[in-house]
Write a structure and sequence with these properties.
Radius of gyration: 18 Å
InterPro entries: PAP2/HPO, PAP2/HPO_sf
Helix content: over 70%
Pfam family, one: PAP2
Organism: Actinocatenispora rupis
Keywords: Membrane, Transmembrane, Transmembrane helix
Protein name: Phosphatidic acid phosphatase type 2/haloperoxidase domain-containing protein
Largest sheet: none
């Protein structure tokens, strides 16, 4: 168990370092791989596929994060009503972490100041800076929260992980397909959220078992 905590925490630190590195590099502009992938994706576009992608984008939108936050707060209140202080505190802490990550994404966008990939052709109207992807960060955060809450139940643990991975991957492809993000924008968002979740999980385990 101790080894797992160290492995998870160490992996989280590496992912956060990758997130920071991509952000620093993003200030210089897109990477070569960003440009190649962005232009390649334009060849995949078709009216039918674009309609499907826009539908997915509507479902897996940042509003999903607000729904998740509301559910977390309701769960915390429910545990408080039952005087389960520790569980209520854990859920409240998870909700606070979610808000911190979401706010952090906004601040990092301004700090990095990376332009959107206009040259690859927008299919959606967007504004603001590009790195990291707010959509991907929101979906990945919701999935990470679900995993943290389901980790105690072995029956649901891996199904929740599988659904989270698929939802996050689909959102990554969605944002690049629509031409509103560079590939490293979505990769950076995943690294940042996953890194925060792993480090937070390791610290919580150390606190509860130490």
């Amino acid at each position: 168990m101790v080894r797992c905590r160290w492995l998870g925490g160490g992996t989280g630190v590496v992912l956060l370092a990758a997130f920071a590195g991509l952000g620093v590099w993003g200030r210089r502009g897109p990477l070569r791989v960003d440009v190649l992938v962005a232009w390649s994706v334009t060849g995949w576009r078709s009216p039918g596929l674009t309609g499907v992608v826009r539908g997915v984008n509507l479902v897996l939108a940042p509003v999903l994060g607000w729904v998740a936050l509301g559910v977390l707060l309701l769960v915390a209140v429910w545990w408080l009503a039952r005087r389960a202080w520790r569980r209520a505190g854990f859920v409240a802490l998870v909700a606070l972490g979610f808000v911190a990550v979401w706010r952090g994404v906004t601040e990092v966008k301004v700090l990095v100041g990376r332009p959107r990939p206009v040259s690859s052709g927008f299919l959606d109207r967007v504004s603001g800076f590009s790195y990291p992807s707010g959509h991907v960060a929101a979906v990945a955060s919701v999935c990470a929260l679900a995993v943290l809450l389901a980790v105690r139940w072995r029956r649901w643990r891996w199904p929740v992980v599988a659904v989270g991975v698929v939802a996050t991957a689909v959102t990554c492809v969605d944002r690049v397909y629509l031409g509103v993000h560079w590939p490293t924008d979505v990769v950076g968002a995943v690294c940042g959220v996953a890194g925060c979740a792993l480090v937070a999980g390791a610290l919580w385990c150390c606190r509860t078992r130490g």
